[in-house]
Amino acid sequence: MARPTSSGNLPPGARAVRRQGAAAGAAVLAVAGLALAGLGEPSSAAAAEGARAPGAHSAPDPDLVRAMSRDLGLTASEAETRLGNEAAAAATSRALRTALGDSFAGAHVSGRTAERLTVETTDAAERSRITEAGATARVVTRDLGALDRVQKALDRAAARSAPKDVPVWYIDTVRNDVVVEARSTSAAHALLKRADVDRDAVTVRRTTAEPRPLADLRGGDAYYMNGSGRCSIGFSVTRGGQGGFVTAGHCGTPGTSTSGYNQQPQGSFQGSTFPGRDYAWVAANSSWTPRPLVNGYGGGDVTVAGSTEAPVGSSVCRSGSTTGWHCGTIQQRNTSVTYPQGTVSGVTRTTVCAEPGDSGGSFISGSQAQGMTSGGSGDCTSGGTTFFHPVNPALQAYGLTLVTSGGGGPTDPPDQGTWAAGTAYRVGDQVTYDGVTYRCVQAHTAQPGWNPQDAPSLWSRA
Questions:
Q1: Hey, what CATH class is 424-461 in?
Q2: Residues in domain Chitin-binding type-3 (predicted)?
Q3: Disulfide engineering: 347 pairs with which of 135, 387, 455, 461, CB 3.0-4.6 Å?
Q4: How confident is residue 416, by pLDDT bands cut at 50, 70 and 90?
Q5: Which of the given ranges, 17-31, 83-97, 394-408, has the highest pLDDT on average?
Q6: Active site residue 250
């Protein structure tokens, strides 16, 4: 994470669907309903275990649990139950988003242990589909597409003339509107006029925040740009046979050289986007081996198992080279924030603290990679708001593969056999994976990461 600097050697801010058929919806929801089975009984360890999404680790990392206990005021048992409920909610909300199509209007978890998943829809006839999946249904006026169009109109207006006194705007699915945070109401209304949006779909809030980029192969470790400015590693990735990592775009431009936490030569930026978005990737030299790990600072490493997006309200933890390991919750996704260098869209707003030098570092929910630290306001003494850029768009933009505990690293990948993501399997169907034959024990449509080896709730050895 980095403060603005006048040095010419450092980057800005661096420190010295369409509705699906009923059959498809039922197939997808078969897994979601199974995953959500334990949400009603958060005090039960068995229920928490049963609520975990397919492919999730059965035992949460103890350092993650300790950090959640410290920052969220939970007991260890509550933290473990919350992680299980959040994993189940992520699977269910993803399935319902596909099943509801254009009527989907958002989803969020609530409760001390995230025991309640609420899914918003504009179609009252979909209440039963939602409740049958184990979630609470809420009928609202605007679908997600309508809210997204309002935000994109604000983004376009900001691109023409950056609104210095309007630092943040975002879709609030709980309120079912778009929230604009401004230091003056006149500045907010000027932006709304330029964007020509429906005023009824917008709420203006006063703020004193002044977000700035947080820039000062294991997620959260320090690295240095051109031998001076410091940022943090996001997540290890590969591209073909080349290893490296994703990080924040404001930390460097293509060609910027990097050295590791030990000041040894490390690699160089291959792609970078900032402002507009805030992500980049660095190709590392042969001295650095990408690992599916995030630095837990003061404890052990946290393992990365995938990159499933966590619902609003979920717990999330951040690793960075200045302040280490801190946790909070996801407040809103699809947020736009204006830094001194310009507006960045598509980031996620959180209650986690961060400071200069933490930029680019890992945000992770349970074992699922969420994104890379972008910027924020406040600090880790008084608290604050921090934004991260989701990791999946960065992977897609540069054709990268996330290194996970289930594969994607420098070793040879497992033999896929006859199993394939996207295939609908029925109970009794048999497949081969990594040389082993498995039998389907729960009807489902296979998703990436739900391979028989990592999803015992769906498959058993034949």
A1: mainly beta
A2: 416-462
A3: 387
A4: low
A5: 83-97
A6: yes
Q: Which of 63, 232, 250, 336 does the annotation list as catalytic? A: 250
**Residue 346's Cα: distance from chain center in Å?**
11
Report d(CA 96, CA 253) in Å as an integer.
39
Rg (CA), the chain: 22
Residue 27 CB burial class (10 angstroms; 0-12, 13-18, ≥19): buried
Single out the catalytic residue among 63, 143, 172, 278.
278
DSSP-derived secondary structure for 76-133: HHHHHHHHHHHHHHHHHHHHHHHHHGGGEEEEEEESTT--EEEEEES-GGGHHHHHHT
The pTM (predicted TM-score) of the whole model is: 0.69
Is 359 marked active-site? yes
Is residue 175 within 8 Å of residue 138, measured between CB atoms?
no
Tokens at 202, concatenated: 């917008």
20-77 per-position pLDDT tens digit: 333 333 333 333 332 333 343 333 333 333 333 444 445 788 888 999 999 999 999 9
Catalytic residue among 359, 362, 377, 457: 359
